[in-house]
Amino acid sequence: MKLATNEGNISSSNINASSDGGAGGEVTLDVAAGTGSINTTTGTIDAIAAVGEGGNVEMLTFQGTISTADVNTFSEDADGKGGQIELNIQDIEGSIDTTAGTLTSGGTVADGGKIELTTIDGNIQTADLNSSAIEAGNGGNIVSDAGGIGSIDVTNGLLDSTSVDGNAGNIDLDTDEGDIQIQNLNASASGAGNGGTISATASQNLGQITASGTIDASAANGDGGAVSLETDEGNIDTADVNTSSNGSGNGGNITATINNGLGSIDTTSGAYNSTSAGGNGGDINLSTNQGGISVSSLSSFSESDGTTGGNIDLTINGQEGSINTTTGTIKSGTSLGVGGDISLSTVDGNISTASLLSNSTGSEIGGNISLSISEAFGDIDTSNGIIDASSDSVDGGDVSLSVADGNISTSRVIARSEGSGIGGDVSISGNEPTKIDTTNAAPDGSASMIDVSSATGTGGNVKLSAGFVVVSSTDASGGVSGGNITYFGDEVDIADGSEIESNGGILQFGTFTLDQDIVVGATSNQGGSFLDIIDAEIDFIVDGFSEIEIGRADGTGTIYVVSPNFPDPVIYLQPTEDGLPE
Predict the structure, then answer these.
(1) What angle do CA 391, 395, 398 make, to 5 degrees?
(2) Cβ-based neighbours of 194, under 8 Å, separated by 6 or more
(3) How many C-beta atoms lie closer than 10 Å to residue 341's C-beta?
């Protein structure tokens, strides 16, 4: 069936091209030129197939609007599939509005058909779009493409390309300069198939993406689908995003990207989940140009032997922008497999976190954790949680925290091997103005510490380097041998009650400024121009180091030796004088 005009409007009530014994018929509504519109909101268009494929429904205007109620093109035949639904405005004006009804190209036992809505410069508003496969078959794809300044608003309904036994269809929302507003997008697979991919892109200028509901590309047994959100300069605000696999498949990757400008990413209204029960966790990558990144829970862990947790990467590439994860936990660790890596980096902003967990509680290694502020001023504060890169059996992951000019505060930093592996290395570094403070109690009240020990293997190494270093207990011991502990600072303070320990490793104290003097073994500090290692702090050093080194090979200051009582052999790496400085 075809209704066509050159420039005039087309209005219809019910159109029935369904078949009780064959394929659905084709329905075409076509306004070839001018500003004529199509309006079917007073009725339903049916092109349903009892046998074979559902009929295709096509609505075309040149510059006029398209408004619809219900459109049904699904197939009830296991060997058929749903028909395609295409609404297309071919020139620079005209919008699409389907909020008066549902577009359904899904199949009861067949593949869902494709639903495609396209404008050149106009808005697209929808209610439910359904290309799902209810019992068998694959979900159909859903495409909404608004060119120019056109916006996409799908908050009045659900976009559903799910499948039960097949693969879910893909969902693709694209605009040039308009906004994209989302309620719920569902491309999940509840049977043996894979989740579909979901993408939303505002490719130019200040177009924003806002998702107030759930974006779901998960799979019950297969691979989770990938989710990609991208703008040029606009903000990205989301709630829950789920690309997990509850079976043997892999979690899908989740990406949110702002390429230019000051746009920010905010996921604090929900959680990102790319985990897997039996496969690998998916990667989570969030990046902006200069805008901030604020997140709640990010999970990419895996729960099966021989698998890997997904990597989690939060990056701000430009000169401004902070990262805040204090409202939730970032977890790339695994129950039985390899922990994924966690990386948070900015150029000029703060990094504030709750717990960061890349640990492996099985027989594999912990993932690495890295936090970096590369230029100008910015603080790192992880004291609202713990950092855990440990392994229950083999090697712990490495932990690296670094700033250009800001301060660093931590509570518990754990890179321990509970088995025969090597403890991970911990490096915390800044510059002359930096204060490193590792003495903050964990949120659960447990004492602060750095633990790179190994139960039956070799302890990892610890190095803290900045203008001012305040440390609590540090454990680099190992069942075989311990690792090295290095403190470089123009002032180094060891908190009361701490224990600094390693069996066989080297403990080194040195200045951050190479020509600063050192005083060892006095009863009190001598002032800001000296690195003081007083008697009370020496008492916190546990016997077991192979040697204790005072100074550094490239240091030029004098070491004043009063009456230290170190528990292990001491080597002075710079010139010494007895007694206090005059």
Answers:
(1) 90
(2) 167, 168, 219, 222, 223, 224, 225, 249
(3) 23
Q: Are 392 and 423 in contact (CB under 8 A)?
A: no
Give CA–CA dist 133/107, Å, rounded. Answer: 5
Q: Note the Cα 8 to chain centre separation in Å.
A: 51
> Cα separation of 103 and 115, whole Å?
8
Decide: 558 and 536 in contact? Cβ < 8 Å: no
Cβ–Cβ under 8 Å, residues 7 and 34:
yes
Q: Say which residue the tokens 């903000």 belong to.
A: 235
Contact 334, 364 (CB under 8 A): yes
| Cα 332 to Cα 399: distance, rounded to the nearest angstrom | 14
Measured CA to CA, the distance from residue 391 to residue 397 in angstroms comes to 8
Give the tokens for residue 448.
Answer: 């602060």
pLDDT digit string, tens, across residues 512-568:
999 999 999 999 999 778 999 999 999 999 999 999 999 999 999 999 999 999 999
| Residue 512 and residue 536 in contact, taking contact as beta carbons nearer than 8 Å | no
**Phi and psi at residue 155, to the nearest 5°:** -80, -10
Annotate 63-102 with DSSP letters as a single string.
SS-EEES-EE--B--TT-BPPPEEEEE-SSS--EEETTS-
- Give 515's contacts (C-beta < 8 A, 6+ positions apart): 555, 556, 557
Cα 225 to Cα 115, 193, 241, 246, 447, distances in angstroms: 19, 10, 11, 13, 41
The per-residue DSSP string of 533-546 comes to E-HHHHTTBPS--S
Query: Domain-by-domain residue ranges, the chain?
Result: 1-243
**DSSP alpha helix (H) spans, 391-487:** none
E-assigned strand segments in 12-75? 15-16, 27-31, 38-40, 45-46, 57-61, 66-68, 71-72
pLDDT in tens, 327-386: 999 999 988 889 999 999 999 999 999 999 999 998 899 999 999 999 988 999 999 999
